[in-house]
Write a sequence for this structure.
């Protein structure tokens, strides 16, 4: 038997990344563990509805930094990739 704790699907988390001036909310939505998330963008009303429907736990700030080089390969987000791409485009 493994000593790994069970993955609890009843736990839901959101971390707001940005509230845009046009009314959209950019956020991370996680099930089971806050480290396993998808990045989403939706209107404030739909975001509020999602939070109520799923009984989410808000999380604050960024997750702890990745330690090993192997983990760093997987430590990226669409937002970070988009920002890197925009910085690259602005240099051209």
């Amino acid at each position: 038997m493994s000593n790994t704790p069970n993955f609890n699907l009843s736990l839901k988390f959101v971390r707001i990344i940005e509230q845009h001036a046009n009314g959209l909310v950019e956020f991370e939505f996680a099930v089971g563990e806050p480290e396993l998330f998808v990045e989403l963008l939706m209107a404030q009303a739909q975001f509020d509805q999602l939070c109520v429907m799923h009984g989410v736990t808000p999380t604050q700030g960024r997750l702890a930094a990745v330690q090993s080089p192997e983990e760093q390969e997987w430590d990226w987000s669409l937002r970070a990739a988009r920002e890197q791409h925009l910085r690259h485009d602005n240099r051209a």
Q: What stands out?
A: Helices lie at 44-54, 69-72, 78-91.
